[in-house]
Write a structure and sequence with these properties.
single chain; mainly alpha
Length: about 400
């Protein structure tokens, strides 16, 4: 047993890969605390625009789903030697960037429709804001945040090409980081336009029409990568958005608990973001490994896949501890209520064991399923992991807090 354990440790990824991932994950968690603090500070806007809170997890998740998948596709192209920095319309880079922005707009409109419909279906009180209001916030806020995240993804890609960074280790945590910290302020900025009714309604209609036009063009585009990514990604992104919307409902149902202990806002965002980033790292490595032939796409994970999963599970331990300690310290620093460091550590540990096990399973079998049916696993693995962990992670944390009487 001891020899087997030592052998397993020897097979872990190089220290450089681990360091890259830990730095990116630490930045991810740190900015999640910033996002949690911002979320706690805009409760007035959340109350003024009913249904906006339901959009928050899905909007944050959309940024990670779209641009982590973009980075994963570019990483695979780099490993395969087919990537070049080029502004040509038919280049791998331009087609993938265009697909990412089209999908951002299209799914943002669907998020607004889902928030309106789901809010009416479950009879939230008060009922959701008008559809045009929700669409303006979702699409405009999504575009504002996405432009910055896109720039960061391209910079990471440049670094991967010039400095031989492994993009699989960096893109999911960094994109999740920026999605956390930028999406909430971007939604808030977009929501401020709602005070100018005529401008808001006109801009909302314009954005929805533009979305329909560009999506139709991408769906039927003569460019194969743009067309394929758009068609393959839309179903999984819609499913991802639905799961993230359920996460928003879960949080709203326990809003009293979160308002009592504001540190839980910080912990929840950091917890699910870290779990999603860890799953994104594994999914990206698996997608690259399956396509390069360095990992066997078997129902039972092979040695290389188990090694990758073990490395990700090992990364989860310090990251989750960091999340609990950071949420407590930031809450204390900003004079926000907290249930205490020990309770946060216990909740994170218990919920983390279940959530990380779930993440590893979904990352492997989701990526495997996409690969086996002939779909691009880069388009499916990351969105499937990050969206499902939004709901499962939030639910696991809430259940743990309540069942163990930690709040």
């Amino acid at each position: 047993m001891a020899r087997r354990a030592i052998s397993g440790l020897r097979e872990l990824p190089p220290w450089g890969d681990t360091t890259q991932s830990l730095v990116a994950l630490a930045l991810n968690s740190t900015t999640s605390f910033v996002a949690g603090t911002i979320l706690a500070a805009i409760t007035g806007t959340l109350e003024a625009v009913p249904g906006l809170l339901m959009l928050v997890p899905a909007a944050i998740g959309l940024r990670g789903n779209v641009f982590s998948a973009l980075g994963s596709r570019l990483s695979t192209a780099i490993h395969l030697g087919t990537f070049r920095f080029s502004a040509r319309r038919d280049s791998v880079l331009v087609q993938n960037v265009a697909a990412a922005m089209v999908l951002t707009m299209a799914v943002s409109v669907l998020l607004a429709l889902a928030a309106k419909g789901l809010g009416i279906a479950v009879a939230i009180d008060p009922l959701p804001a008008p559809l045009l209001d929700l669409a303006l916030v979702a699409v405009l806020g999504g575009l504002l945040a996405s432009l910055v995240v896109l720039g960061a993804t391209l910079l990471l890609t440049l670094g991967a090409v010039r400095f031989e960074w492994d993009l699989d280790n960096l893109v999911a945590p960094i994109v999740s980081t920026l999605g956390d910290v930028l999406t909430i302020p971007a939604l808030w900025v977009a929501a401020q336009l709602l005070h100018i009714r005529l401008v808001a309604q006109g801009l909302s209609v314009l954005l929805m029409l533009a979305t329909i036009v560009v999506f139709g063009m991408a769906w039927r585009a003569p460019l194969p990568t743009l067309r394929r990514v758009t068609r393959e990604s839309l179903p999984i992104l819609c499913g991802a958005a639905g799961l993230s919307m359920l996460a928003g409902l879960t949080l709203q149902s326990k809003l009293g608990v979160f308002n009592r202990y504001k540190a839980l806002y910080l912990l929840e965002l950091a917890f699910v973001s870290s779990a999603g980033a860890l799953g994104g790292i594994l999914s990206s490595r698996l997608a690259t490994g399956f396509q390069l032939g360095t990992m066997d796409p078997d129902t039972r994970p092979g040695r290389a896949a188990r090694r990758a999963a073990l490395a990700v599970a090992g990364l989860a331990v310090p990251v989750m501890i960091f999340n609990a300690i950071g949420a407590h310290l930031v809450a204390v620093a900003f004079s926000q209520s907290t249930p205490g460091l020990l309770r946060l550590l216990v909740a994170t540990a218990v919920a983390g064991v279940f959530t990380i096990a779930f993440v590893l399973a979904v990352a492997y079998y989701g990526t495997l399923a996409a690969f086996r049916v002939g779909l691009d696993p880069d388009n499916y693995g990351v969105p499937l992991v990050t969206s499902s962990v939004d709901f499962v992670g939030a639910l696991a944390l809430v259940i743990t807090l309540i069942s163990l009487h930690l709040v």
